[in-house]
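Practice set, problem 2.
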Amino acid sequence: MAALTDTYIRDEVNYREALAFGLDKDDNLIRRRMRQKLEFILEDVSALIDPSDTKLTVFRNKYA
């Protein structure tokens, strides 16, 4: 358990230091990974939503 805790703390400290140095900025790999994570979240959320026919018609009329 102590080893897991140490690893978690070391990971968190390194992550925060990387953010402080701005290592997340202008990095295409980081941008791609964050985009992928957002897409996964949106896919999960969109599966929960079942829009009504009225909402679909309003959306279609607005963006068509």
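Problem 2, part (b): a different protein.
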Amino acid sequence: MRKSIASVSLSGTLIDKLEAIAAAGFDGVEIFEPNLLAHEGTAREVARQAADLGLAIDLFQPLRDFEGVPDDEFRRNLERAENRFDVMGELGAPLMLVCSNTGADVADDDERAAA
């Protein structure tokens, strides 16, 4: 069984987190975008450092508050997602995680959220 953990689950710099994750015996990491943005290096460098530590980058987590929003905001969200695919590729992440929307102004409409 593969074990992976999200970088948001630990404190410290992104490199500190990767080193701790590898030392704890995890196989992979989920990179939380704010951790990547706070890192001074490039996404490719992070991918290389993770690989050097024996870690796969299992997914990239750049999006929050995505679904259930008004149409104009949803279109902007789709543009944001499109812009993140290049970073995802640089990380070598095969998956992108879209976190659930917990905003108070989200439509309480399951069909809208699913669409």
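Answer key, part (b): The mean pLDDT is 91. The first strand starts at residue 4 and ends at 6.
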